[in-house]
Amino acid sequence: MPSFPGIVAHLIIGSKPEPYLEAALSSIESVSDHLVVNDNSGESPGPHASTLANCALAARGKMTVVRTTFSDFAAARNVCIEATPPDIRQGWALFFDADEVHGDELTAIAALLAKLPADVEAVEGYSRHFVGSFGWWRDIARRLCFFRLSPSRRWSGAVHERLVPPCKSIVVADVWHHYGHVTPPRREWEKGRLYHSLGQSGFVATDDQLRAASPAGVWGHIAADVLPFAGSYPESALPTIERLSSLWAGTFAEVDALFSKAARGWRIRPWLRQMNYGRLLAMRRLESHLRRR
User: Distance between CA atoms of 257 and 246, rounded to whole angstroms?
Assistant: First the structure.
């Protein structure tokens, strides 16, 4: 469902495994006029070349792949801006990662873009962060979804990058799924090493810890904070969820045992957080209703 003056999806990928890439691409194809991918894996063809080639946007001839060397996230995303086809450089960019999977909410958000006043340059929503398996989540965080392209629009920041110059945004109540922390335990700690190398503070696993990574070691410290997921999954994610639930069955069983044990007690903190998320989303829905009037 292309939206005037056009939507270009921007994606950066590297050499690490991206088990959700196929689902992520499928979930954004109906709203995107073009896909720009910055492949900084250092390989040609890259490790994800077949997945990219088989996506619907590639089949329509609406995909551009640019190969670069990774330095930081802002530089990688700026390559996507620069590689956007000229005919949609005044349109909107869809900001997404290879481990984010959208549902029907993305179509509704995209339909809103043409109705926004010129001074609104970004639309944000919320991302639900799953942890350890598809049955548990930790939080719902505000997340950029679309932003207007312009000659001055750029990204800044090595990690947790942000748009510059600052722009006016609206926030909708829609929530999509982030599966980046549903992964084998070792990969979780390996990701932490990458972010640490870019300047993020926090725990960094040693080589010995990586070799012995387990669900309890990686996620045990947050067991008291996670919540069971009782909702539905995006249609695009279902084949991937089925495949990984089989492939990582042992890890998921350990995660479920770990989190279920913590969940059996009365936990006021996650209960209060869930109530707060409910109030926040209700407020956003009211704002959206008033905005449409």
Answer: 17
